[in-house]
Amino acid sequence: MALWTKKQDAYIRQLEAQLYSLKAKDQAIESAMLVIEFSPEGSIRYINARLLNLMGYQESELIGKPHRLLCPEAVMNERDYQQFWNRLRQGESISGTFPRRDVHDQTLWLEGSYLPIKDEQGRVTGVLKHASDVTQQTQQQMTHQSVFEALDKAMAIIEFDIEGHVLTANQNFLSAMGYSLSQLKGQSHRIFCTPEAVASDDYQHFWSQLRRGQFVSGRFQRIAQDGRSVWLEASYNPVISASGQVLKIVKFATDISAEVDQQQAESQAAHMAYEVSLQTQTTALQGVGSLKQLTASFNQLFADMREQSQEVTRLAEASAEIGQILGTIDSIAEQTNLLALNAAIEAARAGDSGRGFAVVADEVRQLSLRTAASTREVSKVVVQNRELNSQVVERIQSSLSYADIASEHVAQVEFAITDIQKGADQVVSAISAFSNTLSH
């Protein structure tokens, strides 16, 4: 009897030790984990303080309530929710990350396991859940995933291992480069580059930087499958492990080929405009020089015409003086004719003694008549000459007036061409600055 008692005591002590160990483990779990227990039908039997604090409920508000009270509406409406509890009632454990809602209807993310509790016959008598709050991590992951999905829709993405071999690429990249994913997997980054680029020191330095974990970005010219040039605005981003090891390279890119083509076209147009502007500038300079020469010629012509006008005026004045002299001669001839006539009369009175004198008087009268006639002829010529001189002077004055107008027009043209030259200078400067901007 005493021997049996010792065995019983030892067994009891063993059970007590096991019970103590179980309680210690349970306390450790309670202090570190979120714990909740359900009936097989999903009613809440127990919930620990950590989970109550997290969800903002009082214990009395949850005991006896269904599990679905803690689930977002979208989860309860899923067919999988019924299957979820069917699996638990069948004794299957389920682990994962689950969305739940707190007292304020805010979504929480719990990572844990639903563990069926079975009796000696293997029947499920309850479900115990141990979980951790991973709301912050899950939201960050969801944010990262949303960002990546947005990038995947908007950008061309390709991944390489650290040796430059293609791991994967999204559809935007495949479409831009004209490849299928099966054609690219395992291929070297070199297939996107010209032989000259691959052979350059810059290319080797480029991959050395990436293997050292350095970020590289810029504009890159790449070659598509059909041989055309594709310009990418891209960044190569090393993915680094917690230990600092570069795991892979992720490239995010935007196809800017159309933009580069437009810039090149604009640059060519700017160059052509620059050349045309230079020609315009040169032509304007030549035009200004020619107009200055023309202006000088006009000025010389004006001076010559004014001098000729003055000479013709002096000629007219001389003709007037000649007319006056001819008038005097004509007057003298008339007086001589009268004297000769008187002498002839006196000679006739004298008879034979005045006959010789009469002959002389007649000769003098004839000479005076011829002188008068010649004087009248010369006077006509002088009058005509004076009229011609007047006409010449009028025409010269008219020509001078027209020449003055022409000179003004030339001056206006010279001013306009000078403005054109200044404008051409400004255009040349502006296009030169624009070309420099495009080149950068």
UniProtKB/TrEMBL annotation:
Cellular-component GO terms for this entry: membrane
SMART domains: MA, PAC, PAS
Entry-linked InterPro entries: Bact_Chemotaxis_MeTrfase (IPR050903), Chemotax_Me-accpt_rcpt (IPR004090), MCPsignal_dom (IPR004089), PAC (IPR001610), PAS (IPR000014), PAS-assoc_C (IPR000700), PAS-like_dom_sf (IPR035965), PAS_4 (IPR013656)
Residues of the PAS domain: 35-73
PAC domain span: 92-146, 214-268
Any one of the GO BP annotations: chemotaxis
Domain Methyl-accepting transducer: residue ranges: 241-440
Gene Ontology molecular function, alphabetical: transmembrane signaling receptor activity
Record PROSITE patterns: CHEMOTAXIS_TRANSDUC_2 (PS50111), PAC (PS50113), PAS (PS50112)
UniProt-listed Pfam families: MCPsignal, PAS_3, PAS_4
Keyword Lipoprotein attached: no
Assigned keywords, A-Z: Transducer
Name of the protein described by the UniProt record: Chemotaxis protein
